[in-house]
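User: Sequence recovery, please. Input:
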């Protein structure tokens, strides 16, 4: 990962570059206090490195846009998917948090496109059980902006790959998986249909896995274009494969800082846990 001061200082189903202006979702704290929507003071370079602080998530600025970057490391974390409990979908991070032990969780984030009932649109695996099959069809909107992709993993080995690659190469069911789209970065190149800084500006979140096997989760704290988010992954995080997860309803729960976002109903949730040895 690049860590120069200059870099750090600069540091659903609708058409990808044709959506209207978006507004940040409401940011809430567990204690009920309102959180200022404006970005917090710019942190020092050392503070922005998620691997060097107790919280897995740190606020940074990239091209004048505030982002939160959360890092999952195989040696310290496990990853799983969550959809609901006792047959009832969570539909919010607040409900998920109420049913969870925050001491064991590094952070959680909504993770993938879903329908009006909260059901994943594409491939979804929870606790090694396939809940939805891989969707290789065509259609309109972000999900079908090919190539789309899958974030998946087992036993601390995590990957983001194009849907067609996944179909051709993955034969064993992973412990977790979620399909979304579009891919932001494919083999080190930005998705061919994503423009440099298109007019669609929404709060967005995404995931990418670097060459060291670490998973980088990013959520914008203000509206951001697909192009800028893709550049952050490629240029700053040096991630070769990154996957868009959602927008408008992009939310984060970070127990260590008390951040618990609220907003429109969500679907799949990715949960990053602390390993018991910590």
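Assistant: Recovered sequence (278 residues):
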């Amino acid at each position: 990962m690049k860590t120069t001061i200059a870099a750090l200082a600069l540091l659903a189903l609708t058409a990808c570059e044709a959506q209207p202006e978006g507004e940040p979702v409401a940011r809430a704290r567990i204690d009920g206090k309102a959180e200022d929507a404006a970005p917090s003071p710019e942190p020092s370079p050392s503070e922005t490195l998620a691997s060097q602080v107790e919280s897995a998530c740190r606020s940074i600025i990239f091209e004048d846009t505030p982002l939160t970057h959360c890092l999952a490391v195989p040696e310290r974390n496990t990853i799983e998917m969550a959809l609901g409990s006792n047959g009832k979908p969570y539909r919010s991070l607040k409900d998920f948090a109420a049913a969870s032990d925050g001491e064991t969780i590094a952070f959680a984030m909504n993770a993938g496109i879903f329908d009006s009932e909260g059901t994943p649109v594409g491939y979804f695996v929870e606790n090694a059980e396939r809940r939805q099959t891989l969707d290789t069809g065509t259609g309109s909107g972000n999900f079908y902006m090919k190539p789309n992709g899958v974030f998946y993993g087992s036993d601390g080995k995590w990957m983001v790959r194009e849907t067609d690659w996944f179909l051709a190469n993955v034969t064993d069911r992973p412990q977790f998986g979620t399909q979304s789209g579009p891919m932001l970065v494919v083999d080190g190149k930005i998705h061919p249909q994503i423009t440099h800084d298109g007019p669609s500006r929404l709060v967005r979140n995404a995931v990418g896995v670097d060459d060291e096997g670490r998973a980088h989760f990013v959520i914008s704290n203000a509206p951001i274009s697909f192009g800028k988010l893709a550049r952050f992954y490629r240029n700053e995080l040096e991630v070769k494969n990154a996957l868009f997860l959602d927008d408008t309803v992009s939310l984060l729960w970070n127990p260590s800082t008390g951040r618990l976002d609220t907003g429109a109903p969500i679907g799949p949730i990715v949960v990053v846990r602390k390993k018991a040895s910590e």
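The radius of gyration is 17 Å.
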